[in-house]
Specification:
Blueprint lengths: L1 H19 L1 H5 L9 H20 L4 H36 L5 H31 L3 H37 L1
Helix pairs in contact: 1-3, 1-4, 3-6, 4-5
């Protein structure tokens, strides 16, 4: 019973967090299609559910703190990936050009500095998250963190296939 309550709380919490980030998402309208939004929301809810299911927080407060830190880590990763792609594209462009030694050094230093800064911040957030948990929960979280993306991808693919099958049945 307690576990079901925590799952319900996690779903509500992730829904609220999604609304909190809505202005940020609206600013990126050109980058995301409207078709991806329901899938993104579904993934966010499934992440929260799977996180609570995997770690089994001891109480509501711990569950909220856990989801908050986890969401911060995921947001940091997302921002880093976008910046990293942009910086790497610039590096690839400069790789084909001759000369521009100073510009190449600056871009490379910026790229490497950005990666180092990300790693430090990510490690700090992970440490803060792990400090919220007891030893067994820490172990369960580490397993979850390493495996949930693949499981999430499989779950979303399965749901997409079910949706396609359902729509093809309706067409017949």
């Amino acid at each position: 019973m307690k576990h079901r309550i925590l799952v319900a709380i996690s779903i509500v919490f992730f829904s609220i967090l999604s609304l909190t980030y809505l202005p940020h998402l609206i600013a990126q309208v050109g980058q995301r299609s409207a078709d991806q939004e329901p899938e993104r929301q579904l993934k966010s809810i499934l992440k929260g559910w799977k996180l609570i299911e995997a770690v089994i927080p001891s109480d509501e407060g711990q569950a909220i703190a856990l989801m908050s830190k986890f969401n911060q880590i995921e947001h940091l990763k997302s921002e880093f990936r976008a910046r990293d792609r942009s910086n790497f594209d610039l590096i690839q462009q400069l790789a084909t050009e001759e000369g521009k030694v100073d510009e190449k050094k600056n871009v490379l230093n910026k790229y490497l500095g950005s990666r180092e800064k990300y790693v430090k911040k990510r490690d700090l957030l992970y440490r803060e998250l792990l400090d919220l948990l007891n030893l067994d929960q820490q172990i369960r979280f580490m397993v979850f963190d390493r495996t949930f993306r693949k499981e999430l991808r499989n779950t979303v693919n399965t749901l997409s296939k079910l949706k396609e099958m359902e729509s093809s049945k309706k067409e017949r």
